Amino acid sequence: MEKEKIGRISALTALSRQRELTPEETAEREALRKEYIADYRENMRQMLQNVRIREEDGTLSPLRRKDEPSA
Q1: Within its chain, how far is the Cα of 51 from the centroid?
Q2: Could you state, in order of their start, the residue ranges of all structural domains in the chain?
């Protein structure tokens, strides 16, 4: 996410502490927050795809999601 968008989220949050946001501002802030969270989750997924677990026998196996069946 671009720094400008993160800055806009911060600006809207600061503004909300001074006065009530308009419906348009509230909708904009929520949309930006959802985009930020989606980007964060995607970055974490990509990072975790590179994690390997060293088994007792020394082999490396990829990290699996809890809801994935075992190999």
Answers
A1: 18
A2: 3-62
What residue type is 53 in one-letter code?
Answer: I
- For 13-57, write each residue's pLDDT tens digit: 999 999 999 999 999 999 999 999 999 999 999 999 999 999 999
Is 0.85 surpassed by the pTM of this model? no
Element at 60 (helix H, strand E): strand 60-62
Residues in CB range of 51: below 8 A, 6 or more apart: 62, 63
Structure-block tokens of residue 40: 């964060």
CB of 60 closer than 8 Å to CB of 54: yes
Query: Which option is the CATH number for 3-62: 1.10.8, 1.10.3470, 3.30.465, 1.10.287?
Result: 1.10.287
